[in-house]
Amino acid sequence: MTVSTAPAPIATGPTRNRPVKLKVDRVSKTFLLRGERGEPPSPFTVLREMSFDVREGEIVSLVGESGCGKTTLLRIIQGLNRLDRGTILVDGHAVSGPGRDRGFVFQQASLLPWRTAAENIEFGLELQGVPKAARHEKARSLLHLVGLEGAANKYPHQLSGGMQQRVGLARAFAIEPAILLMDEPFSALDAQTREVLQRELLRIQAETRMTILFVTHDLDEAIYLSDRIVALGAHPGRVREIIDVPFPKPRQDLPILRSEPEFTRIRKKTAEIIRNARSPEPAAGQEKTP
């Protein structure tokens, strides 16, 4: 791994004075694609010189068209994939593999079907050797936090999709990560359940001050949840622009916020950035602001 000494873009906005929890600095990743009919493998660059920061207590969303490397980047930050160049820092420490300082919430809850909701939440704590009584207490507290006090002894098949995602969120919170990585966690849910969980995520994040990096294809979701939005270009994935979201928290419900002219402006601007993402790139280290 090569560590670049070039500075990452510095965003401006309402959270700019907070300490940096996550630094993604000049990250690049290339895969070798299998050749056809005996041809040699060909390189495919997924990420190129990706740089941005996530500050303490922020929700930052990654948006971009399919193939821009959003999930690949999350897997690299989690330590599941290796980068080719650049560096990733969490609280100033370089990421070299999986660690308890990062929690991950997937598109599907991926709960263990033979364990109850409480036991799923306790799973990571068991692996860390946390005593049983402390595990039980933490699970009870987190079930209360996500609004599932009565579901402790239910198995995944007895829970709705939205309830399963709440358990998955509680499981990620249980290990007390420095940053929570969320990969389109609400995409498989119906629209009504999705809006409920978006509100719940904002409530929980306000109570815990958790730092969150959130991947979504839904621009309304990104604007509603985020302090800042990182708009990505594709083929290869790279930062095109970092956009401040100016709405104060706690936020109005999404249907009300959508009626704000500034919401419409940010949505239009972000959509245009993504649509024009294959146009020439901005100069290295340059960041546009709205």
Q: CATH homologous superfamily of the largest domain, by name?
A: P-loop containing nucleotide triphosphate hydrolases
What is the CATH level 1 assignment of the largest domain? Alpha Beta
The N- and C-terminal alpha carbons lie at a distance of 34 Å
CATH architecture of the largest domain: 3-Layer(aba) Sandwich
Layout of SSEs?
Layout: E1 20-33, E2 42-55, E3 59-63, H1 70-78, E4 85-90, E5 93-94, E6 102-105, H2 117-127, H3 132-145, H4 161-174, E7 179-183, H5 191-208, E8 212-215, H6 219-225, E9 228-233, E10 238-244, H7 254-257, H8 261-275
Parallel strand pairs: 3-8, 3-9, 6-7, 7-8
Antiparallel strand pairs: 1-2, 1-4, 4-5, 9-10
Helix pairs in contact: 2-3, 2-4, 3-4
What can you see in these coordinates?
It is a single chain. The protein folds into two domains: 168 residues, P-loop containing nucleotide triphosphate hydrolases (Rossmann fold, 3-Layer(aba) Sandwich); 75 residues, no CATH class. Helix 2 crosses helix 3 and helix 3 packs across helix 4. The two termini are 34 Å apart. The strands form two sheets. The protein has a six-stranded mixed beta sheet, with helices on both faces. It has a four-stranded antiparallel beta sheet with strand order 2-1-4-5, covered by helices on one side. It is an alpha/beta fold. Strand 9 and strand 10 form a beta hairpin. The N terminus and C terminus are likely disordered.
